[in-house]
Write a structure and sequence with these properties.
The protein is α/β, with parallel strands linked by helices. The protein has helices spanning 3-20, 62-75, 91-105, 120-127, 145-154, 177-186, 205-208, 228-232, 244-247, 271-308, 329-335, 354-369; strands at 83-88, 110-114, 132-135, 160-165, 192-197, 222-226, 238-243, 252-254, 259-261, 321-325, 338-340, 343-347. The chain has a 7-stranded mixed sheet with strand order 1-7-6-5-4-2-3, sandwiched between helices.
Length: 381
Amino acid sequence: MTFHDKDRLAHYMGLIGEKAATSIGYPFATDFNYSELYPLLGYALNNLGDPFIESTYDVSSRTIEREVIEFFANLFRAPAHNSWGYVTNGGSESNLYGLYVARELYPQAMVYYSTSTHYSVPKSIHLLNMPSIVIRSTPNGEMDYDDLKTSIALHRHQPAIVVANIGTTMTEAKDDVRTIRSILQQAAISSHYIHCDAALTGAYLPLLDNDPKFDFAHGADSIACSGHKFIGSPIPCGVVIVKKNYKERIGRPVSYIGSFDSTIAGSRNGHSPVFLWYAIKTLGKEGLLKRASECLWLAAYTQQKLKEGGVSAWRNEKAITVIFPKPADTICCKWQLASEAESSHLICMPGITKNMIDDFIEELLNTQYFPNALASSELLQ
């Protein structure tokens, strides 16, 4: 490596540190510390094949991956002896896998998803060549159940696959799986499948509510959850949990690897399961609940301070996402705010501090909403 290359690398690393200090618009936890695991970066951990079947390549973390799957299966109240899953490259792959399983079960099915659904879903539907209908969303981002009911009634001759959002990308709205299941039952559609995209909230929402409205006990057939969002990971990753008897329609033996090809990817990152396992074992359910409570407190604080400053901020129930009118481009760029139409949001993820929020609000109020006002730090006392 030349001196120029080393200088460029040092500059890049410094720049990343600066950008991370003002990143509040996207759902990435930043308070993790995996230094104890750094020696594993010297090994090519590859979990190729089915995580529940050993392979002839054994420089892996499959045994640890299985414990991660068990944690999430229990969290989502999956059937005790009929659940399976794996650690994916992120929520998009988890959604693709859920829809892939659904298509193999019901090749002639119609897929229903709302206008607030993550962009990975229509992309997956396109890749899988599945027919679909887009359902309207209510102003808060939740699925319009009347529109779903009408659309399903028009296609009662087809099996139905419904994607339920458990925390939409922009407003963290949650679709009610019980209501969706009731609509399917009222339409007398016995062949149906419900996939839940719980990328952000899946890791903590079940801990806040003794009876979450989206899990397997309420009718879900598969659930996607991200690992790098609420739990935190230096490498994007996710988890997908499905009913085992559904998954068995997909896997096929591959002699080359001595295992079954049951996943989307061939080679799979073996480091991410260790990160997730480490976090789960370190934090436990109590630690995860504490993180969630702290994030919810900070979201309520943020909403209150924005409203006190004259900003029309709002959030959904049990949401750590705060939505407000889109500010100036300079603010959006510096604080890396996610925006859609005339709205922006920030997400009070683990690692986001009160001081960061205070600095953001002060700059927002002085730059965008009150350009001629004196410093507004008194609002943050």
